[in-house]
Amino acid sequence: MALVSTETRIEADINFSQITMHNEGKFNPDSLGEFNNALDSILVDESIQCLVITGEEKTFAQGFDLNYLGSEKPDTVLAFVETSMVMVGRLLRSPIPVISAVNGHAFGLGAMLVLASDYAVMREDRGFFCLPEIDLGMNLVPSMNALVKDKLSAKALRELLLTGKRVAAPEAVEFGFVDQSCALEQLISTALSIAQPMLGKDRNALSGLKTGINKDILSFIQ
Question: Above pLDDT 90, what percent of the chain?
Fold first, then answer.
C-alpha cells in the first residue's frame, strides 16, 4: 500500500488535489519521497486551484517515523530532518493555496505541515495538535524553530513547545493557528470554503509573495 495517495476532483466548482497520508502519517525516506512526488505532479498542473492535505482515520500525521530515526546514526537523522524541512519549504512558497484538513492527531512534523499551510481546519471532536519534542528530549533544528516562532504566538509557543501540551480543535482555533473546526464529514468542504479568497490568484505572484513573507523561515531551508 502506498504511504501517500493523491486524487484530483471537483467540489463546489473547485478543481483541487488532495494528498492523503497513510500509515499514520509517519515520515521516513520512503513516505517523504512519495509526498514530494505528489507535490511534483500537483504543482506542475496549472488546472489545479488548491491543495488539501489530510490523513486517515484518527491520525493526520504522527510526524517522524521514530523506528526509522532510532535505526540510523545521528548524522543521518539530522540530514533527514533537514530534507523533510525542504518539503515544508515547498508548502511555504507554493503557487497555490495549501489547506491542512486535520482529521486527527497532528504531532511533530505533522504539526509543522499544519503551520506551513495557508489555512487549517481541524476536526472538532477528535485529535490533538502537539509539538512533543520536550517530552522526547529533543531540540528543534533552526528551520523548525523559525517556523514555530513565526507561526505561533508567544503564549502558544510556551504552552505547546515548552510543555508538550496536546491541544484539541477549540483551543487551536483560540490560539489562532487553526482557522476553523468542524465535524469530520464537513472537513474537506470547509477546507475548500475557507480557501476561497486565495483561489484563482496569479501563481507567480502568490509564490513570490509567500516566499517574501516566509523569508525568515526559508532562510534556514536549503
Answer: 96
- Domain range list for the chain: 4-218
Q: Is residue 48 predicted with pLDDT exceeding 70? A: yes
Q: Is 132 helix (H, G, I), strand (E, B) or coil?
A: coil
pLDDT in tens, 157-195: 999 999 999 999 999 999 999 999 999 999 999 999 999
Strands 14-21 and 50-54, bridge-based pairing: parallel
Distance of CA 5 to CAs 49, 104, 110, 170, Å? 18, 17, 16, 29
Residue closest to 26 by CA, chosen among 68, 63, 78: 63
Distance between CA 89 and CA 203 in Å, rounded? Answer: 16
Question: What's the topology of domain 4-218?
Answer: 2-enoyl-CoA Hydratase; Chain A, domain 1 (3.90.226)
| Cα(35)–Cα(18) distance, integer angstroms | 11
Residue-wise pLDDT for 114-154, tens only, equals 999 999 999 999 999 999 999 999 899 999 999 999 999 99
Please, are residues 45 and 94 in contact by the beta-carbon 8 Å criterion? no
**CA dihedral for 114, 35, 25, 103, sign (positive or negative):** positive
DSSP track, 35-100: HHHHHHHHHT-TT--EEEEE-BTTEEE-EE-HHHHHHS-HHHHHHHHHHHHHHHHHHHT-SS-EEE
Q: Using alpha carbons, select from 137, 141, 179, 177 the residue that is nearest to residue 159.
A: 177
